[in-house]
Structure formats: C-alpha cells, structure tokens
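To assess whether the prediction recovers the assembly geometry, we first specified each molecular entity separately, as shown.
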Amino acid sequence: MFFQELPTMSLLPLLNDRFAAALAAVGAPNAQPLVQQAGRPEFGDYQMNGVMGAAKALKLNPREMAQKVIDAVDLAGIAASLEIAGPGFINIKLADSFLAQRVETALGDAQLGVDALPRQKVMVEYSSVNLAKEMHIGHLRGGIIGDALARIQGFVGQEVVRQNHVGDWGTQFGMLVAYMVETSKTGNASLELGDLDSFYKKSKVRFDEDPAFADTARDYVVKLQGGDAEVLALWKQFVAISLTHCNAIYQKLGLLLNDDDVRGESFYNDDLPVLVNELREKGLLTESDGAQVVFLDEFKNKEGDPAAFIVQKQGGGYLYATTDLGAIRFRTRELKLDRCLYVVDSRQALHFQQLFTTARKAGFLAADAQFEHIGHGTIMGPDGKPLKTRSGDTVKLGDLLDEAVERAFALVSSKNPDQDEATRREIARAVGIGALKYADLSKNRNTDYIFDWDAMLSFEGNTAPYLQYAYTRVQSIFRKVGDWDRRGALLLSEPAEHALALELARFADVVHQVARDSMPHFLCAYLYNLATAFSRFYEACPVLQDGVANTSRLKLCELSGQTLARGLNLLGIEVLETM
RNA sequence: GCGCCCGUAGCUCAACCGGAUAGAGCAACGGCCUUCUAAGCCGUAGGUUACAGGUUCGAUUCCUGUCGGGCGCGCCA
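The predicted structure of the complete assembly is given in tokenized form:
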C-alpha cells in the first residue's frame, strides 16, 4: 500500500478506464462507463451511469449488473466506497488518501497535474478587426474568448498560432487614403488620425458630398490593387496607425495579441485569382448573374434550390468568402495547421458552414482537419437590445475599458480608503478588467448576454473579484506563516478538506474539456466552485492555531492558490496579493 | 418565403454523450466577526424547464407541431 503505484492520468479518464474494464469483465465490452461528477453531495464524488444502458442491451437486471461491476472494478487505493443507488447508478466516494496523493503530485508539478494533450498545431483566429474603424464593443467578446482559448491551448501543450485576421483591404481604404492626402495638405492628417471614427466619418462625408473626391477615392482603390507604390505607402501608413490604436486596446485589456499575430486580408490578394481558377478547374463554379458562385447542395432549401456561395462578384471583384478560402489554403498548405478555431460572431455561422464545405470540396481541407467556427453571441443592454451608449452610438472599446477601471476604483476606494492611491489604482485595474472579462467568459458563449456593471462588479457571487479575493486570502495566510516545513504528510479528515481536495483534483479534467470544446464558461464554473470550496474550508478549518501552522492545510492552501492563479491566468485575468 | 439559434426561479445565468429530488448568484428574509482579509460563511423561501404530443427504464436535453423572441439568407465583412 505504501508504495503502490497510482496512475497519473486525470480523474475522469482514470475512472472511465477502470469501469470500462469492469464492464468488459462482466460481458459488456462495448458499453460506455459514463462516469461523471455526482449530481448531489449525498451521492458521493462521482457517479457511474453506464450500467443501466448496458443492462438494457443485455436484458439483465441493472441493479444486479451494477453489483457485478462493483465486484469486478479495480479501484484499490482510489475509491473509498462504491454503492448502488436508484435504478442502477454506482456512486463513487474517492479515498482521502488518493485525493491527498493527487494534491501532493500537483504541487510538485509546474503544470499542476494537467497532462499535455497529443500535440497539434492550433491556430486561434480572433479579434480580426476592420482597420478602417475604431474598435467597439462588438470586438470585446471575440477578443476575450479567443485570448482565453489561445492561452488554454498553449497550457495543454499545443503549438499555438494566434491570428488577427484584420480587415485591411477593400473599397473603403481608397476613400481613407484619399482623405489622408487631403488632410495632409492642411497639415492635419496625423492629428485627425488620432480619432479613427471621426476620420472615417469625415472621409465618408467628403465621399458623399464631393464627386471629385469620390472619383479620387475610386482611383486610389484601383491604384492600390494595381500596386501603385505611392498609394500603397499611404495605405501602409494608415494600417500602421490603425494597428497602434488596436495595440493600445489589447494592452489595456491584457490580450496577448501583438503585431506578430497580424496577417491581414490583403495578404491573400495575389492568391485569389489563382484560387478561383482552381475552383473552376474542379468544376465547382457556376456563373450566375455575372458572378462566380459555388452552389452547395448541402444547403438546399425545401424547394430544392441550393444556396449560393459567391466567390467573385460581377465585374471581377473578390469577397471575404474568397479571402477566407485563400486563408484556409494558406493555413493548411503553408502553416500545416491541424486545427483552427475561428472565434467569430455566431451570426456568421452560415458563412462558415459554406466556407468549410466549399473548402472540403475543393480539397483545401483534409478530412481530418479540425477547422471550427467558435461562435459567440452579442452583448446586450438592459433593454435586451445590442448595447449602445445613452445617445444611441456604438460603445467604443477604449471608453468601456476606462469605465470598468474607474468603477472598480470607486469601489476599491470605498472598501479600502486607507490604501494609497497608486495601490488602489493598480487593484482597480486588475479588478475592473478582470470583472469585465469574467462576466463574459462565465456565460455560455453561444448565446447573447445582458451587460450589467453592477452585477460584474458587485464583488459577490460568481464574479472575478470573488475569485481574486479568494486568492488574496490564500496569500494572506502565507504572509503570516513565513517559512514553513513541507515535509509532513498531507492528511484529509474534515469534510471541507475532502471537498476542497476533490475540486483541486478536477482541474486537469476541466482544462482538457475546455481545450476540446472551446467553452471557457466551464473553466469559470470550476474556478467558482473551487473558490467556494476554499472559502468553506477557510471558515471551517483554521490553518493557524495558537501560532502553529497545520502543514496539511497549508498544502491545500498552496495548491488552491496556485490553481486559482493559473485558472484565472488561463482566462487572461490577473490575481492580486492584496485587495 | 426558407434556414439557424433561443425560450429554465422576480432578475442574471448553469445543467458536461439523455440520468436520480433542475442548480448557482443577485434581490427578499434569518443567523455568524475578540481568532488566518466579513469583498466571507451558514440557513429559509422561490420552478408545470413557453405550450401540446411522441420516443425512452429515465427528457431542460432527442423527434414532431404550435406560440413567442433574435439572427441570417448571390455580389459588405
């Protein structure tokens, strides 16, 4: 028992493996064990649901079969008890010694016990702003979610390529360059470009009111496409300025994105005619009203009309469908991606279905290539409609981030009036941005959600500040303890200790799940459960008593702190030593 | 017109391949600070999962229909 080799595999795969073997031993080799977390505490830690289905298939009594599975399963040193319940559930209580060993293992591991997944080259495409305009609230979710997914993929050992597929091409850039030339004559260009939105609006006004300006703008588009050096240089200048705006936002939001991650739509320009020719040679193209389209039977409506995927406009121009196909080709042929996560608004779901279907038909995507649209909903205002400013304008992202920090500063100041301002500013930054990100990440990304400052910054319930606060409580203990001797054994006796150790042991399964499903709200839910388990433990189990530290509990504290910090880090949220 | 998504407690949200008595937080009510940060913990109350059928040992989950909401649908991205 003392030197028994215990597996390092994370909990769910381990339990599923052992029960799969047991099912095979009792004559159900193909049955799924279906182990999951217990639905209620009184059911134990985990429950195994696979017996009922297997018994049904074999026409056996499920409870009798469950008993056979219990007799057959090898969970020595892992489970403390196995019980049949209800129609044939098997409830599993894990052994304290096993959980203690898990905690010790994770503490000695930089990955906190999270094994690397089979290595893949994974791209996360996110943010992908239109450089013609300033970043607004519509860019928030994609940025936050994409960044979290990129961090998580990296943590589980993938080769991650972040990609900012910026919109840096199209007719509007002719207009913008024309306006740059015009304002540079009055010496105002650099000043005006400080506010991209008004620059865009003013150039649009000029375009609409002055035919001569409009002609110039159109001329610049042609020159741009023709590679005219002078216009190209101006365009590059505009792109660079717009990117500095983006980078400032990324920095404020704490996103990993930088200039190295940018590959704009313009990058694929030269390939578009080639690509369209290839589609034609493969017999996928049909001319329709002067445009080149791919008809997809997969998206036929009831009348039998197939949906059209336009890859070339009448007149010869290309569209984002073409660019996206070019990007797929580049990513498979040149970058050799195994997987690509497109973090883009759900409203583009049909586009991506058509895109991937066309790419597969054209042979741009291998059968096993995992190219996925990671859709997300819209941020709504209190009225349930897309969030706007009071005056009805689009909410600028920079303003939103500033407001988050300002609101957090007011709250921090009222809570800790004695702290110096610099400290409160720093806390407010981490808390405000963290709250904003967590409010987003903790919701199922598929649906819209209602934006609510008070809820995200209330510092109560399932919020970033609650998690950050739990972390500071851990750190506070270690500040009090100073140096400590970690040689003592980790023994779990109290229910709150068992519950906390169980949560800690689940970390790997949750991270793996999110890496697989790209659903960050599962990680949030986990961290909230962990923080709650820690808070209960903190209330029920004193770590320091009469000046003496309890080594077992210190170890639980240590791993709790590390797991909270790492989990929040994977979400792009900072932790603080004090709040 | 066609297609996709959604409808869960007063509010905001969960529910992992179909699992047990549908879970949290906020708001409401009641407790707990001389002790590691009370931004905390404990408890009470709150539900015909839009509605009607069907499949199943078992349905918030799958299927059909109805109602309600959002979004998308050949030359924007």
